[in-house]
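Encode chain A's predicted structure.
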Amino acid sequence: DKVLAELIEPYELRAAKLLEFLQDVQPSLRYDIVPLADPYGPSVTDPDLQCLVVSEETRKGGEAVNKRRLENGLPELALYEILLMKDPDHSQNEEEKISSSSLRQRLLGTLLRPPRQDPALPSHPYVIGLTGGTGSGKTSIARLLGHLGAFIIDADKLGHTVYSSGGPAYEQVVATFGAEILNQDGTINRRVLGAKVFGNQEKLKSLTDIVWPEIAQMVKEQIKEAAARGNRWLSMTTQSPLS
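Encoded structure for chain A:
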């Protein structure tokens, strides 16, 4: 449940960086770094521990540790409370303390690693995919990229096109889900279709198995169009074939 958990570095890398820092601070001490698979770790079972460093935010956690130690027949640990360091550069939307969550937020928009070169893909146009739920900012980012010269492909609109009357997926969608999904004019009622598939994984897969390959084909055609027009890069946004 961490903020931007996908940007958290692997445990092994974080442990190595921590050890390097601790050895720089005091190389003569022995450090034992262990992963925490639960809120307590070895603090409630190790009889050799004498002190637990806490902050004003985690003091209650330290008290919970001592309660568990007493239940396990171990002596309480001395709780040494440290002050939280304030971050003078924090923004209005970030925490006042120095926080890894704030640091991860600042990584947004940063290239974390060089783009991987895939010999099977043409060098141009360079394709950027935008995905996310409603309100996540896809439209705003696509508009910004468009102002910068990107060729925009809206996969949501393509999704509507493929099962519109005469679209490549229309007949198969109607055959699969029945004439009750049709409006009086013969067009597919997306709300009725959505009520059939959302909440039913099997029916939703049936729909996506029909629609997504057709969308993918239309995307490929638009990428070829962008390349023919000389566009060096393009942006593609997607959410759901029924959004």
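Residues 201-228 form the longest helix (28 residues).
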